[in-house]
Amino acid sequence: MKHSRTTCILVCLLTLITCAALPADNPAPDWKGNVDAGADKSLRPIVFVHGFGGSGEQYELPARLFASNGYPPSWIANYDYNSTGATGGAAPLDKFIDAVRTRTGFDKVDLVGHSRGTMVSQDYLADPARAAKVAHYANIAGRPSTNVGGVPTLVVGSKGDKIAGPGAAREGAKHVVLEKPDHVEAATGPECFEKVYTFFNDGKAPKTLKITPQEPIAVAGFAKLFGPNTPLAGATVEAYEVAADTGRRLAPKPLAQLSVRQDGAWGPFQAKAGQHYEFCLHTPGNARPMHYYREPFVRTDLLVYLKTRDEKSEPGASVLRDLHLSDDSSILIVSQLNGAIAAGKDSLKINDVEIATPEIAPAGATKVGFYVFDANQNKKTDATHPAGPNWNLPFISAADVYIPTDKPDSVKLEFNGHLLHVPNWKPASEGLIAVAFD
Q1: Do domains 213-313 and 319-438 have the same CATH topology?
Q2: How far is CA 364 from CA 146, 367, 405, in A?
Q3: How many other C-beta atoms lie within 10 A of the C-beta of residue 386?
Q4: Taking the alpha carbons of 38, 44, 50, 51 in that order, is the dihedral positive or negative?
């Protein structure tokens, strides 16, 4: 993987910090190492196929768990497709798997399908020539499965999954039923990881179910449109070190400025363990950037997804209209990478206001992404669920929270004891804010 050495400068006003894509004179921190250094390259590469409304970021935690157990980080390859379209496409998946086989030198890969991705995967395996390229298949939280195409298959379901349930294995496929994970966590959590790892490695259990620290740390990922997963080729990612207690930038110039390549990939750059970062995405055609914040990195992570919507076409334009875009109150999109957020199970607070309520995050509804904005436009926090179809889509919810922007300040976010702070960016002129908890 390569990174851009294009330099950049950022003009910083004391009263208004903007995130404009301007030239700079500081190079990105050099990543000179091998992202797979020290890993066991005898382990078979894995291809993950996501579900409806998803992307490869859904496998970020399992990817780090596999890497903590010896897998090369670049061996975990995520197949992104238009998750809101008619089909994921067996032919493009075949091309993707061939590229992984060529890059890694393996004749076969291990395949993982989640939710709608099980339909894509089973369509792929239905062809014997394609099935011959797969050593094992893990069918998670999706349609029932046989050993389709003759490929040894593990079906993973969960009693806590309110969408797909415990699943069903047929005609020789193995079946594992988890107790509590929801529809998303059924694929992303350590319980599923343990079962899949053991299945892929012929009964050998993983050494650890935790993400182990590592240095040096390489950070890279993808910039794509939410839903269709269209690569944002030509976009720019600026990485800033920020203060843990405010989310404010420690320096006016970006630590790294990275170009988004044709496939949507950006990076890597070398990150510091425990350091908080802001990723600022400038997308051609969008009037304003997006600011992304997440918990500090503890080991190499090549699956940091920066997703945004197309502001000029539907449904992105509709969402933007319903957000009442102005500079009066910050707009946040809050998510958890390892499952849904549900009332009674989780706590999600914005400036000490609980929004994981039965109205906003009903148990069993599998809400993953939360839009947080002044929905009532009354300049106060009502902590209610806004009306409208955009806030009742699968996996999506919203909360009425007023975050004034009349003076620079920080927004405090707490999720199950995890704490992040972000600046109160002005949405119309400075951009929206995305926050992801591990």
Answers
A1: yes
A2: 28, 8, 35
A3: 21
A4: negative
Taking alpha carbons only, the member of 334, 336, 340, 337 closest to residue 162 is 340
Q: Pick the closest to residue 49 from 120, 143, 128, 133 (CA basis).
A: 120
Average pLDDT over residues 144-171: 94
Cα distance between residue 271 and residue 29, in whole Å: 8
CATH T-level fold of 46-200: Rossmann fold (3.40.50)
Are 127 and 154 contacting, i.e. CB atoms less than 8 angstroms apart? no
Least Cα distance to 310 among 229, 238, 391, 234 occurs for: 229
Q: Distance of alpha carbon 197 from its chain centroid, rounded? A: 21
Cα–Cα distances in angstroms (integers) from residue 30 to residues 39, 43, 249, in the given order: 21, 28, 20
From the candidate CATH numbers 2.40.128.30, 2.60.40.2200, 2.40.30.170, 3.40.50.970, the one assigned to the domain spanning 319-438 = 2.60.40.2200
Higher pLDDT, 313 or 242: 242
Tell me which residue of 212, 254, 258 sits closest to 234, measured CA to CA.
258
Give the predicted TM-score (pTM) of the model: 0.90
Contact yes or no for 122/114 (Cβ under 8 A)? no
Residues composing the chain? 438
Domains in the chain: boundaries: 46-200, 213-313, 319-438
**CB contact at 8 A, 49 and 111:** yes
Report in angstroms the alpha-carbon separations of 230 from 43, 68, 82, 116, 190.
Answer: 30, 30, 8, 18, 29
* Tokens coding 103: 């890059």
Question: What is the CATH code for 213-313?
Answer: 2.60.40.2190
What integer pLDDT is reported at residue 21 of this predicted model?
A: 32
Q: What angle do CA 91, 97, 98 make, to 5 degrees?
A: 90
* DSSP β-bridge partners for residue 112: 48, 138
In whole angstroms, give the CA distance from residue 44 to residue 59. Answer: 17
Per-residue confidence band for 31, with pLDDT thresholds at 50, 70 and 90: confident
The pLDDT tens digits for 285-341 are 788 999 999 999 999 999 999 999 887 777 778 888 899 999 999 999 999 988 999
Mean pLDDT of 394-401: 94
Give how far Cα 90 sits from Cα of 18, 28, 119, 256, Å.
43, 38, 10, 37
What is the structure's pLDDT at 255? 93
Q: Whole-angstrom Cα distance, residue 290 to residue 146?
A: 43
